[in-house]
Design a protein that fits this description.
By secondary structure, the chain is an all-alpha fold. It has 5 helices and no strands. Helix 2 packs antiparallel against helix 3.
Length: about 120
């Protein structure tokens, strides 16, 4: 997705972008649902209180991320809206991708150390 957004002809490649967005939407949605319904409930039952606390904190933050992603994927659900407002689409895409990257980093920094012990 980021490669498409950086391309000189990105605004004219809305179909390719929409295909990539469909793929991203599916992967993000599946991942967030899996975390919310399987991973975090399991970690909240962990024997170590630090793992339980980290899992609870991260799971509580998931609602906000779900909302942001749902809104984003609905707002850009067709090539017409992407083409008509491409600069806005590009900015929002970069913001959502940055938020997802920050989330993954936070999970690694928060859960990683307590799970490794």
């Amino acid at each position: 997705m980021t490669t498409l957004l950086r391309a000189q002809d990105a605004a004219s490649r809305t179909f390719d972008i929409r295909v990539a967005l469909n793929d991203l939407s599916s992967k993000v949605s599946d991942h967030l649902i899996l975390e919310d319904r399987v991973l975090y409930p399991k970690l909240r039952e962990h024997r170590d209180e630090r793992v339980r606390a980290a899992a609870a904190e991260l799971q509580d933050e998931l609602n906000g991320l779900h909302t942001v992603c749902d809104h984003y994927f609905k707002a850009w659900s067709n090539v017409t809206s992407i083409a008509a407002r491409f600069p806005t689409f590009r900015a929002e895409t970069r913001a959502v991708l940055a938020r997802l990257e920050e989330r993954m980093k936070r999970e690694d920094e928060t859960l990683g150390p307590v799970l490794e012990q």
